[in-house]
Specification:
The complex is a heterodimer of chains A (about 450) and B (about 270). With about 450 residues, chain A is α/β, with parallel strands linked by helices. Chain A has helices at about 15-20, 30-35, 60-75, 80-85, 95-105, 115-130, 135-155, 165-175, 190-205, 215-225, 235-240, 260-270, 300-340, 340-365, 375-400, 405-415, and strands at about 1-10, 40-50, 50-60, 90, 185-190, 210-215, 230, 245-250, 275-280, 295-300. In chain A, about 55% of the residues lie in helices and about 15% in strands. Helix content of chain B is about 80%, strand content about 0%. Chain B has 9 helices and no strands. Chain B has helices at about 1-25, 30-55, 65-85, 90-110, 125-160, 165-170, 170-205, 215-235, 240-265. In chain B, helix 8 (about 215-235) packs antiparallel against helix 9 (about 240-265). In chain B, about 40% of the residues are buried. Classes of the chains: A alpha/beta (about 450), B mainly alpha (about 270). The interface of A and B includes residues 271, 290 and 309 of A.
Chain lengths: ~450, ~270
């Protein structure tokens, strides 16, 4: 049995293509069922996110299976095959295992190390398990992928640093204030980035949000949204001392806060540190403010540099992750190889035993004046003969880790003796370690 | 026995210091855990060495340079362990432990033979006066350590140099909190140590205050930390300038403790 992967991602296809072949989670049942109807496809899982659409499947016929899955992606969405063909990639065997391990570990993501993809794959697998399209191999395979992703996350620092401006701001604040739980955030002006950052601060425990805006109504509206308090813009400096973290993004053409303005504020705050985050361009805060004791100022450029450095860091950590994945692939490939050994031996033994019994019965029926103990003797003889014949092949097959050899022998045995085997799960299925996280 | 315990202490502190420095460069929780365990082991060995020597000598082993440096190191480790367990700041150890190691190495460089106690020191005042002084010194040393970490961290934040060391150091608020604790513990101890010293001096030497170099420098140390604490309590003074003054206070204290004994002869020089 072989694992195959067919799909496209942000690396091979533009969003226009990706959205055409995307599967909606609300109607994932039909394509999953249709997948199993394809000739030679035994199990299937469909992963569809905004950055990738992929099908993981198992098949005995690699070339045929891959071809049918590629066609399936076009046919299901009623697209001419030519439009998506150049964007598709397909893998089988170890390359397929590597690909899925890398995707789950977020090494193939647009932002390497982003945490959503693992949750998305878990959800996709959840559907496949629910509708019965994943079986023994894909169950084991995806659980393995989840544990590899977990290992990558804990053993490397791939996701340890912020790679978005607003998260970088929260992280910096933690290096100034330790706990954000008793901290007040002041928003000066409105702006998407500013609001996003404020929201991040709130979800990370900030106590209160103050909002000010040249248009007081706007401030009120935003304050309501954050369950905070609106402050008239003219009274900014009467309230500034209450704020530990100040986010500014006004359209003002000049600095609205200068070192001179902060003298009194610092005194009123008893010199407790203040963290200014200036997202406005042109800037709202005089950079000289950063020179004041206990005042820390970051503008958009600073934050973007932090993000860039963190991203570079992630790339270095990604190399460690690749090593972990390489290790896990070897182990998993071994499991796949041994998967069918035992059932094949059992089936072979059963087949030979059937023949033996049939021949034995025929012989005894024809043998009229047989001595009384002949049945016992013949039974022992034929059983011993079969055991002797099967002894060596069993040893060879059980010597696992032979890779392609084992597959070859198994295929030959199945073909030569016309064996039908029901594969049984050798170990109990692993449980999902954690509920799928929604992005 | 005392020697075995002492050299065991030295070895354990040596390894611990290396581990704490390694923690600063590379992040593995197991190294930090091991460092903490070894430090506790070193601390226990150190206690054993000091107690054993105290029994052998029949008095507190703080009467010569060998003994006082070792006792100073022990006080610092005790204070450090409190803060490590209370605030979980491994990186503080990377700053404090090298000094501890230096002190113990320094201690081993001085003659360690037991000598009869100077008659002037035969008094129960020795306990309150010196133990309080050592306690104050230990807390001021920790204060000096966190103040230098504060200066580093604040420098990184202002200059936007957010490297490995920045990631390892605790937040400014945590450092500030530890520093303030040290002041509130250390300053009263130093105050009482000076007062008991004066009372003892009146009994032993006949005068409360004789402007002995040790007394003068202790007073300077006291004024520095008094200024810091006063500023903090009245206007909430903190930040980089306060941190600089804390470091200065620590260096003055170090001079009061070691420099005065080594270079300026006076009533407190017993070697």
């Amino acid at each position: 049995m072989n694992i195959i992967v067919v799909g496209l991602s942000h690396k091979t296809a533009s969003v226009e293509i990706r959205e055409k072949v995307a599967f909606s989670p609300n109607s994932i049942e039909q394509p999953l069922k249709a997948l199993l109807m394809l000739e030679g496809i035994v199990e299937g899982v469909i992963v569809s996110t905004c950055n990738r659409v992929e099908i993981y499947a198992t098949t005995r016929d690699i070339a045929g299976g891959v071809g049918r899955l590629r066609r399936f992606l076009a046919d299901w969405h009623h697209l001419p095959y030519d439009t998506i063909e150049p964007h598709l990639y397909s893998y089988h065997g170890e390359a397929a295992i590597r690909h899925v391990f890398r995707v789950a570990s977020s090494l193939d993501s647009m932002v390497v190390g982003e945490p959503q993809i693992l949750g998305q794959i878990k959800t996709s697998y959840g559907y496949a398990a629910e509708y019965g399209s994943s079986g023994i191999i894909l169950n084991r395979f995806l659980h393995k992928a989840f544990s590899v992703a977990k290992r990558v996350r804990t053993e490397t620092r791939i996701a340890s640093s912020a790679v978005s401006v607003s998260f970088a701001a929260v992280e910096l604040a933690r290096k100034i204030f330790d706990s954000l739980s008793d901290k007040t955030v002041l928003l000066v002006g409105a702006g998407e980035m500013c609001e996003l950052a404020a929201r991040h601060f709130l979800t990370n425990g900030a106590r209160e949000v103050l909002v000010t805006n040249r248009t007081y109504e706007k401030a009120q509206r935003l304050a309501e949204e954050f369950e905070g308090q609106a402050v008239p813009f003219e009274e900014l400096f009467d309230h500034l001392h209450k704020a530990d973290i100040i986010l500014t993004s006004t359209g003002a053409p000049h600095f609205i806060v200068t070192p001179k303005d902060l003298k009194e504020v610092i005194q009123r705050r008893r010199m407790r540190p203040m963290f200014f985050i200036d997202i406005a361009v042109p800037r709202d805060i005089d950079p000289a403010v950063n020179e004041l004791d206990s005042i820390y100022l970051y503008d958009m450029d600073d934050l973007q540099q932090v993000v860039a450095a963190n991203l570079e860091n992630r790339m270095q950590e990604a190399e460690k992750a690749e090593a972990i994945i390489a290790e896990e692939i070897v182990q998993f490939a071994k499991w796949i190889a041994t998967l069918e050994v035992t059932p094949t031996i059992v089936a072979l033994r059963r087949r030979l035993d059937e023949l033996r019994r049939a021949e034995l019965a025929r012989t005894l029926v024809a043998w009229k004046d047989a001595p009384p103990d002949v049945e016992k003797r013949l039974d022992a003889l034929t059983t011993a003969l079969i055991n002797k014949i099967l002894h060596q092949p069993t040893i060879v097959l059980k010597r696992t880790g032979q890779g392609n050899r084992t597959d070859l022998y198994l295929d030959a045995l199945r073909a030569l003796f016309d064996l039908e085997l029901g594969i049984e799960e050798p170990e109990s299925t692993l449980e999902l370690e954690e509920p799928p996280t929604t992005p | 026995m005392t020697h075995i315990a002492f050299y065991l202490t030295l070895a354990l502190y040596g390894v611990t210091t290396l581990l704490y420095l390694a923690c600063l460069l590379r992040s593995t929780p197991c190294v930090a855990g091991l460092a903490r365990k070894l430090l506790v082991a070193g601390f226990l060995a150190h206690c054993l060495a000091v107690i054993h020597r105290a029994i052998a000598a029949g008095h507190l082993p703080i009467t010569n340079m060998h003994e006082s440096l070792s006792f100073f190191a022990l006080s610092i480790v005790a204070a450090y362990l409190y803060f490590e367990f209370r605030f979980k700041v491994t990186s503080l150890g990377s700053f404090v432990l090298p000094l501890v190691l230096l002190l113990v190495i320094g201690s081993s460089a001085f003659p360690s033979e037991l000598r009869p106690l100077n008659p002037a020191l035969k008094s129960t005042w020795i306990y309150s006066h010196t133990l309080l002084a050592f306690g104050a010194y230990a807390f001021f040393t920790i204060a000096g350590g966190v103040a230098s970490m504060y200066l580093l961290q604040s420098h990184f934040l202002k200059k936007k140099q957010l490297g490995t060391l920045f990631q390892k150091l605790p937040s400014l608020d945590t450092l500030d909190e530890i520093g303030y604790r040290c002041l509130t513990f250390g300053f009263p101890m130093l105050t009482v140590a000076i007062i008991t010293g004066a009372i003892w001096a009146a009994q032993a030497w006949g005068s409360y205050w004789s402007w002995d170099p040790k007394e003068t420098w202790s007073l300077i140390t006291w004024f520095v930390f008094a200024a810091l604490l006063h500023g903090r309590l009245t206007t909430g003074w903190r930040g980089r300038r306060a941190a600089w003054l804390t470091v200065a206070g620590f260096l003055i204290m170090l001079f009061t403790f070691i420099g005065v004994n080594l270079w300026i002869p006076g009533l407190h020089s017993y070697n």
